[in-house]
Amino acid sequence: MKSYPKVWFLRHGETEWNAEGRVQGQTESVLSPRGVQHAHQQARLMAPILAHNPPCIVSPLKRTRQTADIALGGRDYDMDDRLKEVFAGDWEGHLRADIFKNLPEGITPQSPHIEFYAAAPGGEGFDTFQARVRDFVATLTQPTVIVAHGLSGQLLRGELCGLSRAELGQLTNRQGCVYVLENGVETVLELDEVV
Fold first, then answer.
1. Is 12 a catalytic residue?
2. What is the value of pTM for the model shown?
């Protein structure tokens, strides 16, 4: 397996659309009050890490920038379009419960989220999405903090850990924690009290 530098990965906090069960993809939705709390939890976890001044790279979508502004304690960061969430085509803005009524063949409500979103009509699809995230991962040369999304994060974490497509769908997508990826192994930093 290829070796990569250490990465601290943060998924954005809960958004209003997350709370509603609505497909976001690349459509903008702002953090909910609970999502702001998630970002503050991450800020407490990140403070000792940021003391070492690692570079920070963030998806340019509003929910990730909102999270980064809090979780990274106001420090500067770069943005990279390759970290954006998967484009979910015709499904963006729709409730998952409504989409479940008319799913593409081979997709069920129990399908891993990454397969569900990759099947969206008019969307980006799995291969294009994976290629873009892999292209980003290949640029990592030093220990780095990354703030992005649930599914782009699954692809990124899977790439760093050498996981198969089937294994990607088994990864958790938690908010309010920090995933640490080093030497092909993922650990999770979290506070004892969870919102």
1. yes
2. 0.95
